[in-house]
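hey so i finally got around to running the thing on that chain from the lab meeting. sorry it took forever, my laptop kept dying and i had to restart like 3 times. anyway pasting the input first so we r on the same page abt which one it is
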Amino acid sequence: MSSQKQNPVKGQIFVVSGPSGVGKSTICDRLVKQLDNVYLSVSTTTREKKAGEQDGRDYHFIDRAEFKRQIAAGNFLEYAEVFGNLYGTPKDKLEQALNNGKTVILEIDVQGAQRVKKLCPDAKLIFVLPPKHTELQKRINGRGRDDEKDVEKRLQGAGIEIAAAWQHYEYMVINEDLEQAVEEITQIIKKVIGE
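ok and heres what got predicted. didnt touch it at all, straight out
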């Protein structure tokens, strides 16, 4: 009599989105440190690397031609053009993490989140809100990474993203206090994965 192998438990996808400057990256970094068995997906982008960013840690930085080749090869779970740059979620590492039963966190925009939800209906969408619009403007300016025109574009995009999030996201978390926001999202993830 042969014993039948059971399929390992597949992981769960959580998408964390929010407007520029709301603290998504900081929150995601903290989640990885606080939770066990987590994989934080690193997006691929065509945008220029900013001061202090590292290839493979912050993003996989490639040129537009290579990005288009990867689209043609089917290497992205989802991709979108945002503020004139292409961003995509590499499929191979994500599938590997899920097959290993990991909790996968994707830090992507609203467009990408909606595509992920169509492809992976069990994915849970978490949107991070600023406490106030003026606070968001202060945070974006405080980063010192964007010129005035980019700041204005990001603030206009924030309103559109927030409106879409109220329609499509299961969870809305206000990042007024970083520790509280991280704890709230940690509890959402633990509840969904049954910890």
